[in-house]
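Hi R.,

Here are the chain sequences for the assembly we discussed:
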Amino acid sequence: MVLGAMNLSIEGRPSRAQAIATIQTALEAGVTMIDTADVYGLGAADAGHNERLIAEAGVAASAATKVGVRREGEAWVHDGSPAYLRRAIDASLRALGVETIELLILHAVDARVPIEDSVGAIVDARSQGKVRQIGVSNVTAAELARARAVAPIACVQNEASPFVAPEPGLLELCARERIAFLAYAPTGGWRAGRLAHEPWLQRLAARYGRTCFEVTLAALLACSPGLLVVSGASRPENARSSARAAGLALEPEDVEAFRARFWADGRASER
Ligand SMILES: NC(=O)c1ccc[n+]([C@@H]2O[C@H](COP(=O)([O-])OP(=O)(O)OC[C@H]3O[C@@H](n4cnc5c(N)ncnc54)[C@H](OP(=O)(O)O)[C@@H]3O)[C@@H](O)[C@H]2O)c1
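And here is the predicted structure of the full complex:
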């Protein structure tokens, strides 16, 4: 279970005190990794807000950060050019206050830049000791293969939830190749409010005496070995609840039924 820290810094963010309490609660509840990105803040002038928050909470060594997306006004723009990535990695090191970033993830593929060039810039940073492991996010299996031709890839971070299915075969590929699959927005991100009204999840939750959120996270965790869930929270109680879900073992037939119901034929649920 990974704490997704994005909502602590973007529009609608909580107070600084609540943000720090959320991070600390997650760690006390057993979470050992925090997902962040340089772009998580209120626009370009606030870049690095989330990374600085994690440093302030004293847990920068547990952070995985992402570069390759920046803000231009309201827009989130992909920028995978090596020159930009080099600057962004240095800025992330400063914001986190570390000498080495344990896991640095290319946030997105820039349609104007071959992924080989973007990953190559991160490889250069790794050879300078600035980065330990490299990940890629929002990629297809074909893009992952191209990235792996340049460097060993430790993780893929893609969206996966009852509302969004992973690309067919990608979970299995990652498990086979020992690449961690970090499922982001696992309870649906902006659609999370709908989870509690999903009758099938309600029945599953009642049977296990847990919430719809917790059984969803437990089902995702059981979908594949090496799958980690990047669960967002901006309230301590939600961080605690998500961490608790990691200890919930669902029956294999319930996990199968979850996959069949929400990800049949690789299609995402329309709900
Ligand atoms: N790589 C990418 O491109 C990318 C894109 C988007 C997100 N991410 C990562 O994924 C993380 C998670 O995404 P997300 O926050 O959008 O979606 P999410 O994990 O599906 O969470 C959505 C909302 O559900 C609520 N929630 C979470 N766990 C809960 C629980 N156990 N019980 C009750 N409510 C719960 C939280 O509300 P409260 O905020 O009120 O606590 C949270 O903000 C982000 O923080 C970020 O690190 C990555």
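The chain has a mean pLDDT of 96. The pocket of NAP is lined by residues 4-7, 35, 107, 137-138, 157, 184-189, 192, 211, 213-214, 230-235, 238, 241-242 (CB under 6 Å).

Let me know if anything looks off.

Best,
T.
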